[in-house]
Amino acid sequence: MEKCQGCEYFKDGECGSSSCTFIEKGNEANKIKYVIGIMSGKGGVGKSSVTAMMANVLKNNNYKVGILDGDITGPSIAKMFGVRGPARNVEGGIQPVITENGISIMSMNLLLPNETDPVIWRGPIVSGVIKQFWNDVIWGELDYLLVDFPPGTGDVALTAMQSLPLNGVVMVASPQNLVHMIVKKGIKMAEGMKIPIIGLIENMSYVQPPGLDKPYYLFGEGKTEEVANELGLNFLGRIPIEREFVDLMDSGEIYKYKHSAFEKLIEHLLDIIKVSIY
Ligand SMILES: Nc1ncnc2c1ncn2[C@@H]1O[C@H](COP(=O)(O)OP(=O)(O)OP(=O)(O)O)[C@@H](O)[C@H]1O
């Protein structure tokens, strides 16, 4: 109920929000301080990459971090961190797999016999798995559980928003104009569900060619900051396209990736989380 303080629907110690009533209880072994969703209105803008980078920086700042890979049909988190299943079933639930740098992960790929097996399921079953990742996984004590959202604003994203006790969402955009129209849909969806928007991040903003001091804006200068200002939201920063990032992702060593832009961004993010939500 602590997180309800200040919510317009919280009156006389009771929650009066219709969306909150769908929230699942979660595994009783879990003590998670903040649940943060990482969302985009559209696939492929780097939602999973931003989730992984955020997790790394939080971990480097000594927070206990977990990642719930809510992208059930296109999971990539386990591969980025080079972890393999099967996740173990123990008394009380399923144990997440721990990465080289100590991040707890649950992803559909950790439950499949073969990581290249496709998940060909209809929406309600996929939505059920997201709830299971919350109810059946023994996350234990965490400061931050980051939820890599399913792409788009459809059925599965809606279930994730309704059933997880999200403290806020971070919206990921890329510089193209089309993405901005779509990211606004994601923002409106979160607002409609009364979930605070922590801010917008622009991924794949620019390339910094070696030997040049100016960044090169491959997709044109992004307008995410403008969109954030227009909507009265926080702009969290820009992440460049980096070859090193791709190489580390492909080799399953994303935990080795460091970028100063991301350190600043996460400081900003932590401040915003403390100030605007709690
Ligand atoms: N900043 C970056 N620098 C270099 N490559 C990047 C960057 N961000 C993302 N990528 C690459 O872009 C591709 C898509 O990224 P990612 O899987 O994170 O997107 P997504 O939005 O989660 O996609 P989906 O919606 O399919 O889950 C990946 O191959 C990733 O390596």
UniProtKB/TrEMBL annotation:
One of its GO terms (biological process) is iron-sulfur cluster assembly. The keyword Cell division does not apply. The keyword Transmembrane helix does not apply. Gene3D superfamilies: P-loop containing nucleotide triphosphate hydrolases. InterPro entries: Mrp-like_CS, Mrp/NBP35_ATP-bd, NUBPL-like, P-loop_NTPase, YlxH/NBP35. SUPFAM superfamilies: P-loop containing nucleoside triphosphate hydrolases. Keywords: ATP-binding, Hydrolase, Iron, Iron-sulfur, Metal-binding, Nucleotide-binding. Signal peptide: none annotated. PROSITE patterns: MRP. ATP binds at residues 41-48. GO terms for molecular function: 4 iron, 4 sulfur cluster binding; ATP binding; ATP hydrolysis activity; ATP-dependent FeS chaperone activity; metal ion binding. Binds and transfers iron-sulfur (Fe-S) clusters to target apoproteins. Can hydrolyze ATP. HAMAP family: Mrp_NBP35 (MF_02040). Belongs to the Mrp/NBP35 ATP-binding proteins family. Homodimer. This is Iron-sulfur cluster carrier protein.
